[in-house]
Amino acid sequence: MNHAHNFLRWVALILALWAIIKSYSGMSSKKAFTAADKKPSLFFMISMDIQLLLGLALYFTGAWGMKNIQNMGMGEVMKDPAGRFFAIEHTIGMVLAIVFAHVAYAFAKKPMNDTAKFKKIFVFSLLSLVVMLLSIPWPFREAIARPWFPGM
Q1: How far apart are alpha carbons 94 and 129 in whole angstroms?
Q2: What's the rounded Cα separation, in Å, for the pair 107 and 84?
Q3: What is each CA distance from 7 to 4, 19, 46, 47, 112, in whole angstroms?
Q4: Taking the CB of the first residue and of the last residue of the chain, which one, N or C, has fewer CB atoms within 10 A?
């Protein structure tokens, strides 16, 4: 399950970029918003929801979430950089990124000015991407590092 969660981050990141590029393009060209313009935000949101489900399963069954808190106690987990990252920081950051992805898609469905719709999708998709990038345990992050492509 951890490998699937790690692999799907790339899918979510690519879909985030697609939503950002598509919305920026629509915003800058001042074109009419179509059903096709809604799809990148929808697919990005779905990928984030799948990540949430996998992440919740890992949080409640894996070694770094609830089991770590139960074994060490919350005070000790907060003192451990890796434990704190996976039990608190990664979890809160990714939930926030998911909320931003949902807000972006909500604006894709709202009846509003097309340029404003593209702009709101762009802003919230970009916010989601930034929070995701800050919350991923990249290989260059000491103490919490995970490989680029786990299991390969």
Answers
A1: 10
A2: 34
A3: 5, 19, 15, 11, 36
A4: C
98, two tokens? 């998911």
Tokens linked to 17: 């970029």
Taking alpha carbons only, the member of 116, 91, 96 closest to residue 27 is 116
Tell me the two tokens of residue 50.
């799948």
Look up residue 116 and give its two tokens.
């404003």
Q: Judge whether residue 151 has pLDDT over 80.
A: no
Mean pLDDT, the chain, rounded, equals 95
pTM given for the model: 0.93
- In this prediction, residue 143 has a pLDDT band, given cuts at 50, 70 and 90, of confident
- Over residues 91-136, the pLDDT tens digits come to 999 999 999 999 999 999 999 999 999 999 999 999 999 999 999 9
- The first and second tokens of residue 54, run together, are 């996998």
Phi, psi of 67 (to 5 degrees): -60, -40
* Burial profile 63-82: b = 16 or more Cβ within 10 angstroms, e = fewer: ebbeebbeeeeeeebeeeeb
Distance CA 14, CA 3 (A): 17
